[in-house]
Amino acid sequence: MIRSEFSKHEGRTCCGRAWSRTCVSAGVFLIAMCCLASTRILPNIHANDNQTPTGRIESGVLTLHLELREGVWHPEAEDGRAIETYSFAEEGHDPLTPGPLIRVPQGTELRISVHNCLSVPAAVHGLHQHPGKADNPMELAPDETKKERFTAGEPGTYIYWASTLGRKAASRRLPASQGKLETRSLDEGMMSGVLIVDKSGLSTDDRIFVIQLWARHLFTPNFVGILSINGKSWPYTERLQARLAQPENWHIVNGTRLEHPMHLHGFYFNVGAVGDGETEHTYASHTHAIETSLQFSAKLRLLRAAQIVSDPLGKQLRKE
Question: Distance between CA atoms of 271 and 194, rounded to whole angstroms?
Answer without folding.
Answer: 19
